[in-house]
Amino acid sequence: TPGSPVNMTELSTADSFAFAFDIDGVLVRGGRPIPEAIEAMRVLNGENEYGMKVPYIFLTNGGGKTEAERCIDLSGQLDIVVSPAQFICGHTPMREMVEKYKTVLIVGGEGEKCRQVAEGYGFRDVITPGDIIKDNEATTPFRKLTPEEQANSRIRNYGETKIEAIFVFADSRDWAGDVQIMLDLAMSKGGYIGTLSDTFDEGPPIYFSHNDIVWSAAHDNVRLGMGALRKTVETLFKNITSKDLETIAFGKPQIGTFQFATRLLQQWRKDEHRINRPPETVYFVGDTPESDIRGTNEFNEKAKNTWYSILVRTGVYQEGTEPAYKPQVTVDTVLDAVKHGMKREV
Ligand code: G3P
Ligand code: MG
Q1: Which of 1, 66, 317, 328 gives the lowest tally of CB atoms within 10 Å of its CB?
Q2: What processes does the entry annotate via GO biological process terms (predicted)?
Q3: What is the number of the ligand 1 atom nearest to the C-alpha of 25?
Q4: What is the pTM of this model?
């Protein structure tokens, strides 16, 4: 363009392929970047022998903050600018349920964060476990609200409030209290807290933003995740009522999450990179066979062979074990994954 600075090293943009990244165990561990991740992003942004930029998005099961806040965190960790338009976390697709339920219980995360996320999505009436404890402190015998929680929690008459659905947005900070309240509702007459059903089959549906039993954090060994909480709730319900409780999980490996990611990637390629055609290959880089590799492989079967699974050795998957779901390739780090994909393409 006349008047714009002359760029001596004009980069081309790859339009036939793209990358999608898991975050924990691939790019970040315990809030710190995995060193090769910073280099991997530089390579995709043009610092490579081909003089080429490659479009990419992020697809994590994590959550607990708004997408915009998570992108600020990730930008700082990876030394790039990450836009919410290229970012999906576990609870992102839950925003499509705001019309379906009016009054909802939102579980997990720090303080009021997840309530704010849910209200930002457009949920009209959001209750937290803290609200319920404030109304009746006998709900959780061993959990007392902090002065801050007291101040934030909202008083109302729960005998008259029908909770239509429960959404677990992020990891629980108080398993005992949150499990108690989820079970109270699952065993209630139609979602009215304080009631007890005769049949135990009329509680509100429970949605988890993902189903990872373990995940890769700062500790050397994997840590318990939301899938473990899900199992706990289901097992205890069965123990107490002798009935089965069926809950629902979003996130990877659900096909719907990969469909959501496909739409986001298409929009991102169009808006950011001016590419108007679908990619022939999307390289998905993950560390958890049960969510990342399983989801990519199953989606690939439906998506005309366009998704390609790459497993890294920096997270949940442990070298020397047999992954429950086999990737197309296993490499050491995310940098090797990026090099592998680019080498296949150019
Ligand atoms: O809680 C987050 C964790 O279970 C997985 O995150 O980025 O590995 O999908 P990620
Ligand atoms: Mg991971």
Answers
A1: 1
A2: glycerophospholipid biosynthetic process
A3: 8
A4: 0.95
330 contacts 292 by C-beta, under 8 angstroms = no
Question: Ligand 1 pocket, 22 CB below 6 A?
Answer: yes
325 Cα–ligand 1 center, Å: 17
Distance in angstroms (rounded) separating the CA atoms of residues 290 and 325:
6
The CA-atom distances, in angstroms, between 249 and each of 105, 186, 212, 213, 341 are 16, 16, 10, 12, 30
Residue 212, ligand 1, Cβ within 6 A: yes
CB atoms within 10 A of CB 76: 11
The domain limits of the chain are 12-90+253-345, 93-249
Q: Which ligand is nearest to the CA of 226?
A: 1
The helix/strand/coil state of 207 is: strand
Q: What is the 3-state secondary structure (H, E, C) of 262-277?
A: HHHHHHHHHHHHCCCC
Q: Is the pLDDT of residue 6 over 60?
A: no
CATH class of segment(s) 12-90+253-345: alpha beta
Cβ-count burial of 9 within 10 angstroms (0-12 exposed, 13-18 middle, 19+ buried)? exposed
* Nearby residues for ligand 2 (ion, Cβ within 5 Å): 22, 24-25, 287-288
DSSP state of 10: P
7 alpha carbon, distance to own chain's centre: 38
Is any ligand 1 atom within 6 A of the Cβ of residue 251?
Answer: no
Longest CA span, the chain = 76
185-219: pLDDT as tens digits: 999 999 999 999 999 999 999 999 999 999 999 99
The CATH fold assigned to 93-249 is Rossmann fold (3.40.50)
The confidence band for 20, taking pLDDT boundaries of 50, 70 and 90, is very high
225 lines ligand 1 (CB under 6 A): yes
The ligand 1 atom at the shortest distance from the C-alpha of residue 286 is: 8
Give phi and psi for 15, each to the nearest 5: -110, -5
Ligand nearest to the Cα of 228, by number? 1
